[in-house]
C-alpha cells in the first residue's frame, strides 16, 4: 500500500476479478445501432474487403464469399453469409493466465483493464527524458503491471529497440513470461513467429495439447484501413485459429484519413473490417474466441496528426462497445489516453474522459495503461492510470441499495443533530469501499500543504514505481520450465537469424 509515497508491496491487496458494471450508458439509440449494422452489411456486400493472402481468399470463397467484379483480390460477402457468421460467434469467452486465479472471464457484465502496446520510446524514470526503449524496460514495466490491481493483463508496452528485429517478438514475450503470471497479450508478425510463441507457451502448459485446452497464447490481426488485410495479418489469424487460441481483431481506422470523417461512417467501416476478420477466423474454427478490439481514432486536419485525447475518441469507443455487444463479443476499446506530452491538467482531463465514457457503456476490456507520451511508455503513467481506473471502476460499480445500505436503523439511532462517526456501520462500509480512499492522490488540507509543500502527482507515482521495482516479486516460472523456454528461444535465434 502507498502512504506518503511508500509502496509496501502487499500482494494480498490485489484483486484481479473483473469489476461488475451495475448500469450501462448508451451513446447510440437502438435505431442508430441498427443503422450502423445495416451500413456494415452494405459495405461487405457491395464494396468488399481486400485479402492479400491467397489462403485467406480460398477459405472465404469456399465459405460463401464472392470475387468483386472489378477490384483485384477484393471479396464481397452476401448478407446471408454475414448474418450466419454473426450467429456462430461464441458469446464472450475466457482469456487464460499462467496462474488460474488471474484468468479473465468475460461475460458482458464485468470489465477489465490492460496496458497499451507498441511504443518505440520510453520516458526515462531517472532523467525524465524520452529515449529509445530497451529490453530491460519491457522487463520492468511488466513487473510493475504485475503489481497493479487494475491492470488485469500485460501487453508489450514498449518495443525493445536494442533487440535484433528478427528476435523482437520472441525476446519481448520471454521477458513478459518471466515477469508476470497474469494474462499476457503478445503479437506475431508472421506465421513462423506464431509457431515459436506456441512452443514457448507449451513449455508452461506441458505440451501442445495442453496449450489447446488452456491457451495462454493469443494472436492479433490488424487490418490496414480502409478495408484491407495484408497477407501476414491474415495468415497469422489463420494459424492462431488452427492452434485454437483467441484472436484479437484490431482495426485502426482514422477518421478523416483512412475512414470517413463522420463517426458513424468510421464505425460502420471499422465494423465491416472486423466482421470480415471474424468470417476468416470462422473458416478455420467457428468456436475461436474473438475479441472486438476497436481502435477508431481521429485525424487533426490542421497538422495531420493522429489524436486520441478528445471527446470523439471517447464516443467512438463507447459506441464500439454497443456494436460489439450486439454480437455478444468481447468489447476491447481504448480507455485512458491523451495527446499532451507533459503532466498537467489537460492530461488528467483527457485520460479520465476517454476512460470513463466507454467504461460506463459497459466495455469488457479497457486499454491504454502506461502509454500515450510522445509514442513513449511512461513508468509514472502506469501507476497514475491504474489509479484512474480505480476511480472509473468505483463509478461503474454504482450505488448499492438494500436494507443495510439504506441504514434506517442507524439514522433512527443517531437522530437529529447526532453523528455517525463512531458507529461500527460507518467503519464497516468504509472498509467495504463505499468511499474510495486513494493512496496516491493528494488529499491533504490546505494548511498541511502550506506547511509540508506541494507534492506533484507524478512525483508520488515515481516513488511508487521505484518501490514496486525494489520490492515486488512476480510468481516465477518453474526452473524446469525456464530451462525449456531458454532452449526454445535459442532455437528461434538460430532459425530467425540464421545462426549456427
Structure overview:
The structure is a single chain. The chain is of the alpha/beta class. The chain has a domain at 9-27 and 87-396: TIM Barrel (Alpha-Beta Barrel), CATH 3.20.20. The chain contains 18 helices and 23 strands. The strands form seven sheets. A seven-stranded mixed sheet has the order 3-9-22-21-18-16-14, with helices on one face. The longest helix is centred in the middle third of the chain and has 20 residues, at 263-282. Mean pLDDT is 94; it is low at 1-15.
Keywords:
disordered N terminus; TIM Barrel; 500 residues; 18 helices
Beta-strand content estimate: 5-15%
Helix content: 40-55%
| Biggest β-sheet strands, sense, barrel | 7 strands, mixed
Q: For the CA atoms, what is the radius of gyration?
A: 24 Å
Mean of the pLDDT scores?
A: 94
CATH topology of the domain at 9-27 and 87-396: TIM Barrel
Describe the strand arrangement of the main beta sheet, using strand numbers: 3-9-22-21-18-16-14
Specify the number of helices.
18
Number of E-state strands:
23
CATH class (first level) name of the domain at 9-27 and 87-396: Alpha Beta
End-to-end Cα distance: 49 Å
Second CATH tier, the architecture of the domain at 9-27 and 87-396 = Alpha-Beta Barrel
The CATH homologous superfamily of the domain at 9-27 and 87-396: Trimethylamine methyltransferase-like
- Helical/strand content category: alpha/beta
Sequence stretches where pLDDT stays below 50 over 5 or more residues: 1-15
Tell me the overall shape: globular
